[in-house]
Amino acid sequence: MTEGAVLVFSEEDNFAFELLALAKKLSDQLGSWTGAIILGDGSDRVAKFTEHGADKIFVVPDIDSIKDGTDVIAEGVSQVVLNVSPRLILIAATKIGKEVAAYVAQSLHTGCASECLDVLVEGPWVEVTRLVMGGGFLARQIFESYPAVVTIPPRRFQAVRSKGEGKVENVKVVVQRRMSKLESRAVEKSGVKLEDAEVVVAVGRGLKRKDDLKLAEELAKVLGAELGCTRPISGDLKWLPDDRHIGLSGKRVKPKLYIAVGISGQIQHVVGMRESKTVVCINTDPNAPMHKEADYSIVGDLYKVLPALINAVKRIKGQV
Questions:
Q1: Which of 35, 39, 231, 263 could be joined to 65 by an S-S link, Cβ 3.0–4.6 Å?
Q2: What's the CA angle centered on 91, arms 88 and 92, to 5 degrees?
Q3: Could you tell me which of 236, 193, 86 has the C-alpha nearest to residue 147?
Q4: In which order are the strands placed within the sheet that holds 148-152?
């Protein structure tokens, strides 16, 4: 094992840069170096990885993270990790990253901690903090086998400029391609960046019809907000694209103002918005769990409350 080395991987370079910020801090504590894995052509990317703190960069030119399937990516990353033997590998918790992490841990017969909020080095041990039981509790867990495989949600840490040594090593891997990609279909996306929104209006099953989204859209428009939703709205009813889903398996947001419209407040949704600064809940059910998460609760019919709110905001802004 390369004593104390911390390796990072993401198929998206921006997320890898975020991980390098954490990796640099941990490798300093371990008295070792920070490394990164690049799949595909690294000629135009090495410099940026170096600028973000990578001391060693392992380039795997034979694998393309866009054209190749997750099985190939996972096997390639696994072989690099096996050869480098770091103390810890940090992987961005994207859809691909989650699969890669599980594969790497299984192939190396080591532990994997997913969606970690923080990573600490305590003597010889790596300790992680993560949400468990549907996000209702925080758990601190210690690895007993190494290398420790850890996934980190994107945007959990901020990328920082920290000059690394930038030593490049081209890695040859042998991967058996068991699946072929026959066709790619674009997933419908709104293009919205909910994570960056300062105001979010989110809708749930309190809406009766798809056309009723217009009410929430108008409120969002007058507030300068982005529109989000619960999983049933995007996943089951398909009323909104998946990238507007807020929750455990969707986006994590932390706006200054979060308005929950017709949302019951199940823990799977609350996990995605609990870092919001001010929360307003609009729900007819006074016992809805969402009220407990709210700073301001309106127990009432959204079909009466939203038009009143829209008119009130317009009056304040001099739009009526």
A1: 39
A2: 150
A3: 86
A4: 112-113, 148-152, 88-92, 6-9, 34-39, 56-60, 167-170
* Cα separation, 196 vs 276, whole angstroms: 12
Quote the pTM value: 0.73
Radius of gyration in angstroms for the set of CA atoms belonging to the chain, rounded to a whole number:
22
Residue written as tokens 């995007």? 234
Closest C-alpha to 201, from 288, 292, 309, 289: 309
Start-to-end Cα distance in the chain: 69
- Amino acid symbol at 247: G
Q: At residue 273, does pLDDT exceed 60? A: yes
Q: What angle do CA 156, 232, 182 make, to 5 degrees?
A: 75
228-251: burial string, b at 16+ Cβ within 10 Å, e else: bbbbebbeeeebbebbbbbbbebb
Share of the chain above pLDDT 90, in %: 75
Distances in Å between the alpha carbon of 65 and those of 88, 114, 163, 177, 202?
22, 21, 26, 13, 33
Predicted pLDDT of residue 279: 97
Token pair listed for 288: 């809805």
Distance separating alpha carbons of residues 314 and 161, to the nearest angstrom: 43
| pLDDT for residue 137 | 81
Residue range 60-110, pLDDT digits in tens: 999 988 888 899 999 999 999 999 999 999 999 998 999 999 999 999 999
Nearest in space to 262 (alpha carbons), one of 237, 22, 90, 48: 237
pLDDT > 90? residue 250: no
- 95 burial class (0-12, 13-18, 19+ CB within 10 angstroms)? exposed
